[in-house]
Amino acid sequence: MSTDTQDAESLSNEEQDELLQEVERSRSHQGLSAALVALIGITFSAFQMWIAARSYQFSVTLPGVGTVEIASLQPLQVYAIHVTFALVLAFLLFPASTGDGFVARRLGAIVPAVKGRFGPDSPVTRAVERLRDGVRWAAIDPSLRRITPLDACLAVISLFPAYYIVTSYDEIKQLATFGIQSGAPLAESVPPQLEPLAVGLTTIVPLEGQSGAFLLGALGILLVLEATRRTLGVVLMSLIASFIVYARWGYFIPSDSAIGALAIQPDTWASIVYDLWYTTEAGIMSTPVSVSVRFIYIFILFGAFLEMSGAGKWFIDLAYSMTGTRKGGPAKASVVSSGFMGMLSGSSIANTVTTGAFTIPLMKRSGYSPEFSGAVEASASSGGQVLPPVMGAAAFLIVEFTGTAYSDVIMAATLPAIAFFFGMWVMVHFEAVRGGIGGLARGELPDGFAKFRSGWFYLIPLALLIYFLVIARLSINRAGWYTIIAITALIAVVAAYDERSRVPLLGSIASITLAHAAAFATYGVGLGSAVQVLLGLESAADPYALGAAAGAAVSELGTIAILVSVAFLLARPRADAPLLTLDDSIDDSARRSAKSLGCPSLADNAGYRFGTFVLKSMDSGARTATTVVIAVAAAGVVPGVISVSGLGPNLAALIDAVSGGSILLLLALTGVAAIIFGMGMPTTAMYIILVAMLGAPMEELGVWVVAAHLFILYFGLMADVTPPVAVAAFAGAGVAKADELKTATAAFLLSLNKILVPFAFVFSPGILLARNVDGTWGLIGWGDVMDLDFFLPEVVVPILGMFLGVYALGVTIIGYQYSSVDAGTRALYAIASILLMVPEIPLLVLEGALALVGVSTGLTGLTATLLLRLLGLAILVSLSHRNYTRLSGSELESATPNPGEA
């Protein structure tokens, strides 16, 4: 959008990259190292795309030869390769140290101390200085620009555990029966070229009696811990390591102590390594990594392809064209566009920086403070991860962990997500009215109709995604693959499309598709195989019915469109592509790569830009997924230890004892734990750890399993905007050039909906469109809707209460409605908000107080909650009326929104 890119305060792509590096502490490679990392990332994405398309069978079909099988991998082998790719990228993208950490500073004080003790010319001083220089060269990267020898060494070593799993799977299957020490020696478990090194290592280090399986499994676990430290910080690494230590020595906890419930049976390192590394039921290679392989990666890749196609910028422009002229329009556009992009990216930090580079300068220009602007972007970006249909990676984790259908998960998650963004919209509007902040001039904004017409095709992949998942009910993996093909096909057609090529391009795609359908209807095979049948190289199959033939041909439409478009691009290398508006980073990459090839003019070639788009999307997806894969691999240790140690029932009993059987106290403890665990770590890792520890106790108290998982997710996302860590808010402050703590505080207040809304849907599952019938949970159907005795009080009333409560909370936080709201009145608005959204909270508090004096009573019945909601409504209406009548005529004219402004 012109207004963004021309803004003096807008961030360039280079500045965005620098800010992301500062927050995430990742490298920016140049030259050969950049090419190496990109090649590994592209290979990682290609591996995952093959799995999405063909599962774990790796084979090729050759004309006249038939199908040649390359490999058929087992799940453990695929998971090991998946984790290894992430380990290699983690060691190449994230430094071991930048030299400014606590340990580095303590070690850095050694040289001055030695110099002061022995003098600057002492041999001891010179030896220590040389040692310091050697360590800096080998391990420290303060500039975030180079791969150190330690990084290269760890990246290579990461290959060995996966090599053993892939090449010695038959031996691994026997480990469960004969024990991990029954495996072959280390020298026989590594590539032949490294056998002398392994022999030498066993000679130097006392490893007698330790099998290669044990040593390589232990190495794999240690590498995951180191990668976790680099990518996610020492806190998560320490947490995971403490669980491993607990698995070994947790039996020392006295069973008669206050935490005696945490005592476990003794275990050996051999058993622990086997459980954590070589099984798919528990540990690193268990469900979290399985979900990453099958679901998460392909949708991260989908988001990367969609963003790189220019859809992100188009959607931001479209949001501004629709809301930019209204009161607080730039902030409202930020809420809409950031929620959309956050849903796809699954990264609060990355989305805050990339989308905020467009939205925050315009919010500041319209009159919002830098702190509020950064807070709005951070809050909306983090909230995007609860927005269906993608929900970052959360939707797929919930599907896997709960066994609930994907369509049920996104239906349940829809209304709470809308309520959150409605609350954001209300608050930015009230802030605009209070500050007299109008919108931008129409001349500064793109024309909405023209903008929609220029990029309407970006909506096709999203529509197809919903169709594949909800209507066609394809597997999540296959749906993600098809949508990536759809995006690539769209961009290929757009790249080859102009006035001259329009008719032949579209005509060729249609003709080949019809010929493809005819081949299925005639020979039972596709067009390529039908040609071989005609040449006598293959035999025909049973013909398809016309409908089935048409469906089979349409399923290949994306591939046909890509092949035809690429043919047109090769045939017309100098043709223009007037509709091709890729992300700016694609054009930057095309220019850099073309210049490095010695042919700068290539950067303007549509075919070259299309190729850059595909490869850059694959590379970007791999980089984004690296942190997520490391997070889920590390987090898998927690449920693994809980499972194999038998801790689960004892932990549930301990949690029940701490909460005293109170659902309110359990929810509060869960929320606080989610925020604490979520600080500074990806949502996926927090979610996996908390669900493993707290999910079962919540279910035992009658909470629907999906509601319990969504509750943990909502509170975990609060960590991204909760001081003192607040990584997303700090990223927003960096873009806005604002005070970090003030931005984080504002983002936390703007996100308070993520605290009350989950309490609301746990106590009122009708908000999730769910109903419990004879102990079985499920989404409501038309029969439930017609049952007005159920539908009105348990679905309609809680939903209305939630939205009205979110509105009242917005007034509470901003301190403005039609006129200013003083502190005492804000407290009344807050009470109205709680009564409307979660009347169970005051009732349960009263129950607890009465229980302390020996009075046991149940107050949370339908009648009591309905009366409290009515009381909350009366308070809200009364306060709103009084606030409205305080306006003078001039204030009324300036503060009351027109119907088209709100």
How would you characterize this protein structure?
A two-stranded antiparallel ribbon has the order 1-2. The protein is built from 44 helices and four strands. It is 70% helix and 2% strand. The longest helix has 30 residues, at 406-435. It is an all-alpha fold and 902 residues long. Helix 17 (329-345) packs parallel to helix 19 (370-383) and helix 24 packs parallel to helix 28 (557-571). It is globular.
Question: How many E strands?
Answer: 4
Q: Distance between the terminal alpha carbons, to the nearest Å? A: 23 Å
Poorly predicted tracts of residues: 1-6, 892-902
Helix content: over 70%
What is the strand and helix layout of this fold?
Layout: H1 2-5, H2 13-24, H3 31-54, E1 57-62, E2 66-72, H4 75-93, H5 102-108, H6 110-118, H7 123-139, H8 149-157, H9 159-167, H10 169-178, H11 195-204, H12 212-232, H13 234-249, H14 269-277, H15 287-308, H16 311-323, H17 329-345, H18 348-366, H19 370-383, H20 394-402, H21 406-435, H22 448-455, H23 459-471, H24 476-496, H25 502-523, H26 527-534, H27 546-555, H28 557-571, H29 584-596, H30 606-635, H31 637-644, H32 647-659, H33 663-678, H34 683-700, H35 705-718, H36 727-736, H37 740-750, H38 753-763, E3 770-773, E4 776-779, H39 782-786, H40 788-814, H41 823-837, H42 840-852, H43 862-885, H44 889-895
Antiparallel strand pairs: 1-2, 3-4
